[in-house]
Structure formats: C-alpha cells, structure tokens
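go over this record:
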Amino acid sequence: MNLPRTALPAEWEPQAAILIAWPHADTDWAPRLSQVERTYVALAAAIARFQTAVICVADAELEQDVCRQLDSAGVDLDRVRFVQRAYDDTWLRDSGPITLRTADGFRLLDFRFTGWGGKFEASRDDELVAGLVRDGVFVDAEHRRIDWALEGGAIESDGHGTILTTWRCLHQRHPDSSREAIEATLRDALAADRVLWLDHGYLQGDDTDAHIDTLARFAPNDAIVYQQCDDVSDPHHAELERMRRELEALRTRDGHAYRLHPLPWAAPVVDEGRRLAASYANYLVLNDAVLAPAYDDPSDDVAAAVLAAAHPDRRVVQIPCRPLIWQNGSLHCVTMQLPAGLLSTS
C-alpha cells in the first residue's frame, strides 16, 4: 500500500506525550473540583507511567498545587511538563492541536473552536494552539490556522488516509454546507483520501452533537471498537443498533469488512435527573497502554477486556471517570496525544 506522505497518524502510532489542562476554581468544574481533581491525578499518574504528560495550568499557584498533588500520589515529576496558559475549559481533545506528520516534520492544524457550536464561551480555548506554539512546546512545526469549525473528538484516523466521522456533528457545525463540501474540506485539511460517515448514533448527556470518539474508534489491523447498547428497553437501543449496521456495512481500503469489537453498555448514570454519557468508547491509547474509562459499573471490566483484545500489545489501565461525565465528556475528551518527535526539549 502506498501511504500518503502527509497523514494524520492513528492514535496507536508512537507518541511523545499526552496534553491535558488541569481543572481549577475558575472553570465549570468548580462545584465538584475535589472530585474531578482525583480523576486528573489518576490520569496524570497513568500517563507518566508510560510517557510524558504535558499539563496546562492557569498560573504558577495552580502549578505548585498540582505538583503537590502529583508528588503525594507518587508520580514521577520528571515525566511531567507544565505550561502556564489561560483556558476556558479542559476539553483539549477539541481545542488542542490536530497534528499531521509530513515529509518535513509536522503540521499543527488549528481549527476554529466554537465551544461545540456556540454552546459555551471558547475564546481563550480557540487561542490555545497558537499560545502553545508561542510557548515553545513544540519543535519547529508548521502552524496552520484553519477558519473552519472542527473538534478533534469529531474525527478518527486509521493513519492511512481514512477518516471516520458523524454527519450529525459536522452538519450541526456547518448547516449550510453539503456533505460533499464538508468531505472535501476534511480531505484537504487532513490529507485524507477517504471519509467514512455514520448517520446514526448518539448518547444522552453528550453536548458535542455525537462526536465519533463517544461512539466508534479505529483500532489496528482494520478493526473498529464501538459502543453498543444491548438493553432493548433503553432509549439508545434503536439508534445504536442502526449505527452497528452502518459499521457492518463499512469496508476497508481493500474492500473487506472491518473487524468489530462491541463495547458493553453501562447501567444508566443519572445526576440530578440528567442522564450522563457513560461511553466506554471514550478511551485513550498510549505508547504501551490503553487507558479505559471506568464508571463504577460491573461492565467496567468487560469493557477493559474488549479494549485489551482490540489492542493486544498494550496494557489496559482503568481510570475513574464518573466525575468527568458530569460535565458531558469523558477520558478521551480531556486529552490530546502529541506524536513522537513533536515535543520540544526545552
């Protein structure tokens, strides 16, 4: 197979670091800050076991506090790098850089971030990538600002020029554009030659308008891991069954069906009358591990086993994510991988 010289790497390709932003009292996490910080400590500790964690903090005071928390948890601080930068929220999957590997190095794609279609204030998050470039976080890479709304959680790449996405999300961001026009933009910006669309699939409690990373994820060797719902009484059942049939109909570049790995369905998580999106598809791949969301549910271990089967060369580490879904996202949503070679040494 002739691979494109420029491509969006698959998440399981070699990484330099994982980028996260720490929650603090001036973010929407404030009412439950202590709970979510425990999740972030567990997340940072897991990342640092395998590679570098780059942590955005709002100021020096927060950096000192985070250092104290991580040190108390036994985290190797030599594998943690701090960047002081203002941010509105901590969902770096959607405001962080989407990085292409090119023949000359890297291209940092800086799409317009609109707070998921204008739902939330996002002006500082929209400046995040440019700020990180100025801060010297990356090697000398091309920084390309693209005045077109796209979040990292809305796309999946197999590393070979195929993008998987959902029509529900992209149509919401660009209601006046046709599918053909949106696809052309994705192909051009992401150096892709195939775009696979899902027309079905959603989760209550997800305010991203059906990001693909809550529903279905590429895995190595022409596989897709997806969130199923086997509870026929659940309101998600019919829609996720339609999505499953769509996934079964997709074909690889060589014309074969994808190997499908269905994830179990967690019991409904309800907070103050609101259903939360407890998706196991929102996992994170590291160099030698897969971080799996856990929701204090009997299905947690089943989901971990599915992820181990889809990524057999990696250790599965569970991260407690119930505090994250209170704010409508989960593990993958708060992280962004940085490809190997992208992180500066200064």
Remarks:
- The first helix runs from residue 33 to 50.
- The chain has one domain: 15-339.
- The mean pLDDT is 97.
